[in-house]
Amino acid sequence: MFSLVAQYIYAPGHRPGPSPLPLLGNVCHLTTKELWLVATEWAKQFGDVVYIHLFGQGLIFLNSPEATMDLLDKKGSIYGDKPGLVMAGELCGCDNMVAFTRYGDKSKRQRRLLNQAFGVQAIPSYHPLIETETHSFIRRLVAEPSEYINHVRQYAGGLTLSVVYGYETSSNDDKFLNLGQECVDILSNRIASGGGIWPVDIFPSLKHLPTWAPGSGFKTKAAAWKSRMEEFVNQPYSFVKTSLKSGSYKPSFCSMLLEDEKNCTPQFEFDLKHTANSMYSASMDTTMTVFCQFLLAMVLHPEVLAKAQKEIDSVVGPDRLPTFSDRASLPYVDAILNETYRWGVPVPLSLPHRLMEDDVYQGMFMPKGSLIFGNVWYVSAIMRDETLFPDASVFLPERYMENVEPALAKKRDPRRYVFGFGRRRCPGVNLVESSLWLLVASVLATSEISKAQDAFGNPIEPKVDFNNAVFRLPDRFDCEIRPRSEHTLKVLRQTEVAGS
């Protein structure tokens, strides 16, 4: 307690931010719902760097491209750590997930595994699988359009389970899909809500409270969540091991790395199964969020949908679906995906980094151990900045069709922000981004998307709400999705025959 008081009273340098309460800090300023909106108000009031604290635990929000890149990219050697959170890590069992692993030998081993399997050069080997899963998704979407949330969930989870474990999902009610969705929800909306800081993270001795003691309810929750998390780490991995022994396995990330038995030390297998599990957790919500934001944009902007379909029709024609070989010839489709990243902002506050040593930035003292958030929503100070993106609140893919100076194009590229920063950039970005492009292109090629209608045929404005604490995933909204023509249905039936 004394160290927290000392840090609060004696920390040098002015740090702009909302006024804290003595000792308690800014507890009253945090929220579990759309924290990025609160952080953006701070950014408007206090500038590029905003500091708050909870009982002395510093939280720093970076609100400009310059501050974000200066610290998280250029100074990644000291800003590349992840927070050692007692609740998420020790009590809930997430400390071996890639997103939570502290910077060091373990994180380097995990990233080597991921780079080996998902580097740029490896992605074309996954294209046939991505195409098969995408075609299956489109057929399900056309058959039951109102279930689009479940369909994209099955697509995102099924693709990852297939790529990582060689496991094929059987339905939306698949056992691994359900377990994975439960664990992703626990992580995003339970463990990490409100910035992911729990009292036990500030006062670690609370972890020793007996479960019957007042205020120890977090331990009961953590034990239940940890049990489910461990199931999801172990069960799909056991499936791969069993499949390898029986010879019935399908090529996957895990099977490829397990084939050389000489490498299968206990440490290697420990790293592998946690790294594999991390890929699922990282890709599921990202894919669902980007797709739902794309769908919302098409509902609200039919002129964008029509323009994209005209481009696809001229390049692809009516008798097949888009493939990866078409990408270079479909710049407007690329622009729609870029604009979806920018306008939708899938992870508005990114995932927190941890400062490994004291630092000073623009005269501001940054204390060691502070958690650092890149405020990507206010990249909207980065990605809604009117100087970078005129009419920034408008969904306008044409902005990415403009000829601009290379330096400006780089600064405006949303991929620099939406997939993380520096040494903790998402290592699965190449796979996720490729699958999202084909998903978007295929939906544009096959579907008419519009607002839902009431009983009198009047359009209904979609009701949009966000209740995920980490991802800007909209709750289900009503819309109309239907095949473009009878010929489209014929083409989709042909993909089913070809894939059988």
Name the beta content range: 5-15%
What can be said about the biggest beta sheet? 4 strands, mixed
Unreliable sequence segments: 1-12
Report helical residue fraction: 40-55%
Main-sheet strand order equals 1-2-6-3
Order of helices and strands: HHEEHHHHHHHHHHHHHEEEEHHHEEH
Instruction: Write down the overall geometry.
Output: globular
List keywords for this structure.
500 residues, alpha+beta, four-stranded mixed sheet, 6% strand, disordered N terminus, Cyt_P450_E_grp-I, oxidoreductase activity, acting on paired donors, with incorporation or reduction of molecular oxygen, Cyt_P450, iron
Task: Report on the architecture of this protein.
The chain is an alpha+beta fold and 500 residues long. The chain has helices spanning 2-10, 35-46, 65-73, 76-79, 86-91, 105-118, 127-143, 148-165, 175-191, 199-202, 217-246, 253-258, 266-300, 302-315, 331-344, 406-412, 415-418, 429-446, 486-499, and strands at residues 49-54, 57-62, 353-354, 359-361, 364-366, 371-374, 447-450, 480-483. The protein has a four-stranded mixed β-sheet. Strands 4-5 form a two-stranded antiparallel ribbon. A two-stranded antiparallel sheet has the order 7-8. Helix 7 (127-143) crosses helix 18. The chain starts with a helix and ends with a helix. Residues 1-12 have low confidence and may be disordered.
List the helices and strands and how they pair.
Blueprint (H helix, E strand, L loop, with lengths): L1 H9 L24 H12 L2 E6 L2 E6 L2 H9 L2 H4 L6 H6 L13 H14 L8 H17 L4 H18 L9 H17 L7 H4 L14 H30 L6 H6 L7 H35 L1 H14 L15 H14 L8 E2 L4 E3 L2 E3 L4 E4 L31 H7 L2 H4 L10 H18 E4 L29 E4 L2 H14 L1
Parallel strand pairs: 2-6
Antiparallel strand pairs: 1-2, 3-6, 4-5, 7-8
Cofactor: heme
Family: Belongs to the cytochrome P450 family.
Keywords: Heme, Iron, Metal-binding, Monooxygenase, Oxidoreductase
